[in-house]
Automatic annotation (TrEMBL):
Similarity comment: family membership: Belongs to the sulfatase family.
SUPFAM superfamilies referenced in this protein's UniProt entry, alphabetically: Alkaline phosphatase-like
Membrane topology (UniProt): Multi-pass membrane protein
Record-level GO cellular component terms: plasma membrane
Protein name in UniProt: Sulfatase N-terminal domain-containing protein
PANTHER family on file: LIPOTEICHOIC ACID SYNTHASE, PHOSPHOGLYCEROL TRANSFERASE I
Gene3D superfamilies xrefs: Alkaline Phosphatase, subunit A
Main location: membrane
InterPro entries hit by this protein: Alkaline_phosphatase_core_sf (IPR017850), OpgB/LTA_synthase_biosynth (IPR050448), Sulfatase_N (IPR000917)
Organism: Anopheles coluzzii (African malaria mosquito)
Amino acid sequence: LQQYDRLKQDAVLHGPLQVPAWGANTVRSEFAFLSGIAAEHLGVHRFNPYRAVAGGWDVASLASYLKRLGYRTVCIHPYPVSFYRRDRVYPRLGFDEFLDVRHFDESMRSGPYTGDAAVANLVDRIVREATQPLFVFVITMENHGPLHLEQVAAGDVDALYHAAPPEGCDDLTIYLRHLRNADRMILSLRQTLEQCAHPASLCWYGDHVPIMPAVYQQFATPSGEVEYIVWANWQAKSQAATMSRADALAQRWLQAVGVA
């Protein structure tokens, strides 16, 4: 992952990230990042906090904070906005606009879902057209499971491994194929922000580890920690890796780039 490693080398912050989801339930990590509220403080709503928000819970978020500072707040998620009631939740969290799968077409798919390249292109257009401070929250779909819905393509093993994996690792091969595209997305986003005339930063993190039971039988089950990177287009402060939590990451990001 050449671009990921390069971004981490130039990062303001980076390290392992503890998230409240394992294998699925993206909304748990999503809500933790946006709200700054730890899962242990949510009671039964830790399993799907958006039910409470859709039902009327008023909760401050990263988006509502930035909106008060004059930012336009946009979410891009190439899946139907009605899923997890995001059509009701995201306006309550302070988002001005939600761009869902209707802003993409079939030609933009990579596997069953919209590819990361198409999402990066939309981010680029929004950034270039911006007339005010801008916060774009992106929830990608390309590497979303179930991974077994796809087949290993000819050439994948040679392109993705130094040595062929054990039998039963097709899910890993498919995951790595899409991870390679995520790495290309990092380059695209970095180029967009490097060309931006204003200070701009990128906070990149994983929402949860993938579900790959056969692979984990071969190589062991992961702890559930993911990784995060905070990068800015006006400074490079490579630091030693520091552990963070999803519910603390947004505040650390804003403090690191001077917005908090």
